[in-house]
Design brief:
Blueprint lengths: L5 H24 L2 H7 L17 E2 L12 E3 L4 H14 L2 E5 L5 H15 L3 H5 L10 E4 L14 E8 L13 H25 L6 H4 L6 E7 L21 E4 L8 E4 L2 E4 L7 E5 L1 H18 L1
Parallel strand pairs: 1-9, 2-3
Antiparallel strand pairs: 3-10, 4-5, 5-6, 7-10, 8-9
C-alpha cells in the first residue's frame, strides 16, 4: 500500500503553480507561438513538449491502399452517394474535387490566413482574446489552461452561420475572403448533408431538418516553423466533436489520419477539400444502421 509524503504534495503543488505562471506569462504576451519564433527561440518551452504517440507512423507514398478516397462531384449523383457512403463507413474521411468552389477562392483563403498571422504583433494584440462571445477570436491554444501540453499553433475563429459576421468585425487583411469563402463552404455543406442523408437511406433534407448545418464556424490555423519539431505537435491526436468538418490544406501538408492503428498521410491536392465525419454525425450513422438492423429482424 503506497503513501504520499508532505514533501511530494508540496513539490507537486509547486510544479503545478509554476506551470500555471508560465501559461499565464505566455498568454499575456498576446503574441502566440509566432511571437516565440519572431523572438528567435532556439529551445521551445517545456509547455509545448509532448510525449511520443503510441500509434505507429506509416507512409503511404507508395501504398495505394492507404490513400483516402477522392470523390469527383462531376460524376452522377448516385455514384457520388455510393462513394460517400463507402468512404464514410471505411475511413470517416474523404476528399472532394470539382465541388464548385473556385480554385482562386481556395488560394485566396489560404493567403488570407497567412496575412492575418503575419501582421505586426501589435496589430494582432488588439484582437487577441479568450472571450468566446467576440465576433472574431484570436489566440494560441483554446484549451491552454486544461491541456497537458500546448500545440505549436495559433488560431483565429469566427461564426459564419446562422449569422454571418459584419464586415467591420473582421480584420481588413482577410475580411473579404473570409466572407466569400464562408458563403461558398456554407453552400457546399448543405450539399454534403443532402448527399450524406441519401447515403444513410434517408430523405435528402433529413440532416438539414435536424439543424446539422445550423452552426458553421470558420477556423484559421497557423503553424510557425519550429526549431525542435521532434518535441511538439502542431495539432495533437483528436476527433472533431462536430457533425462535419471541411478542411482546406495548404501546399505544405502535414495532415494525418489514424487508420487501422497507423497514421496515414493526406497529401495536399490543390483543388481538394478534406471532409471529416464528426463525432455527432457518427452517432447518427450508428443509430440509423441500428434501426435498419432492427427492422430486418
Amino acid at each position: 500500500m503506497g503513501s504520499t509524503t508532505t514533501n511530494e504534495i508540496e513539490s507537486k503543488f509547486k510544479s503545478n503553480s509554476d506551470r500555471m505562471d508560465e501559461l499565464k506569462a505566455f498568454d499575456e504576451t498576446k503574441a502566440g507561438v509566432k511571437g516565440l519564433v519572431d523572438e528567435g527561440v532556439v529551445k521551445i518551452p517545456t509547455l509545448f513538449h509532448h510525449p511520443p504517440d503510441t500509434f505507429s507512423y506509416s507512409t503511404n507514398s507508395t501504398n495505394t491502399e492507404h490513400i483516402i478516397p477522392v470523390i469527383d462531384f462531376t460524376n452522377t449523383r448516385q455514384h457520388i452517394i455510393n462513394k460517400i457512403k463507402e468512404a464514410s463507413e471505411t475511413w470517416g474521411f474523404f476528399q472532394v474535387v470539382n465541388h464548385g468552389i473556385p480554385l482562386n477562392v481556395l488560394e485566396d483563403m489560404k493567403d488570407g490566413v497567412v496575412r492575418f498571422f503575419e501582421q505586426d504583433t501589435e496589430v494582432k494584440k488588439e484582437v487577441y482574446t479568450r472571450d468566446q462571445t467576440r465576433p472574431l477570436v484570436y489566440n494560441s491554444n483554446f484549451d491552454m489552461y486544461s491541456s497537458p501540453a500546448l500545440n505549436w499553433r495559433d488560431t483565429f475563429k469566427c461564426n459564419i452561420a446562422p449569422n454571418a459576421p459584419k464586415p467591420e468585425d473582421l480584420p481588413v487583411v482577410c475580411r473579404d475572403i473570409v466572407l466569400e469563402y464562408g458563403a461558398h463552404v456554407e453552400k457546399l455543406g448543405m450539399t454534403l448533408f443532402e448527399l450524406l442523408s441519401e447515403a444513410l437511406g434517408l430523405n435528402p433534407n433529413h440532416l438539414k431538418d435536424m439543424d446539422c448545418s445550423k452552426w458553421i464556424m470558420l477556423l484559421g490555423h497557423y503553424y510557425p516553423a519550429c526549431p525542435q519539431p521532434e518535441l511538439t505537435m502542431g495539432t495533437t491526436r483528436h476527433s472533431d466533436g462536430s457533425f462535419l468538418t471541411v478542411l482546406l490544406q495548404d501546399h505544405i501538408g502535414g495532415l494525418q489520419i489514424l487508420y487501422q492503428n497507423s497514421w496515414i498521410d493526406v497529401s495536399p491536392i490543390p483543388e481538394a477539400l478534406v471532409i471529416n465525419i464528426g463525432d455527432l454525425l457518427q452517432k447518427i450513422q450508428s443509430i440509423q444502421y441500428f434501426l435498419k438492423a432492427v427492422q430486418r429482424t
